[in-house]
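INSTRUCTION: Work out how this chain folds

Token vocabulary: learned, describes local backbone geometry

RECORD BEGINS BELOW THIS LINE
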Amino acid sequence: MKISLPTIAALACSLLLSACGEPVAHNRGVYMLIDTSGTYTEELDKAQQVINYTLAKLNPGDTFAVASINTGSFSEKNIQAKVTFDDRPSVTNKQKQAFQQSIQQFVDNTEPASYTDITGGLLQAVEYLNEKRPGTKTILIFSDLKEEIKEGYNRDVPLQLDGFNLVALNVTKLRSDNIDPNEYLGRLQDWQSRVEKSGGSWRVINDLERLEKILP
């Protein structure tokens, strides 16, 4: 069967248009929330372990930010360190060193907060990563997941988590959980339900020796 020249030309144009469509982003965006309420500040050395692992795995073009969860977390002031890595590996290495220094200052100077505004931190994380528009969006939540909102703060706000991967890390058990394990299991189930109903994916990783699972 012979194919006419107009048909060949039309097929060629179609292939070219397909090839010239909007490029797919392959960079990664990671936003880590760190609980700084009460005695959970004693876990900050473990948080640094997660941060250092994440820094080692991220590449030029990727974005990373670390923010604290405290009384009111829906604020850019809670971001302790943020960076989008340069395309040049030599510059990226310097950026990673500067990031680690900023985190060390944060760890050294952090005072325990009275409340735990996890929802506010999530809202800030979503806003930040959506602005960066990475190919994959991951939010790490380093917390016992016990949310306590200060009176007067409104957090009855829907989360928009389509396309987001949420990973809860180091979800320690509270003293009351030891008395009634249902409290601990209930916190995990409530957050999983809330995240998945908002369009996100949910995982819990308590074994910090298995950090290879935190990034897609």
Notes: The mean pLDDT is 91.
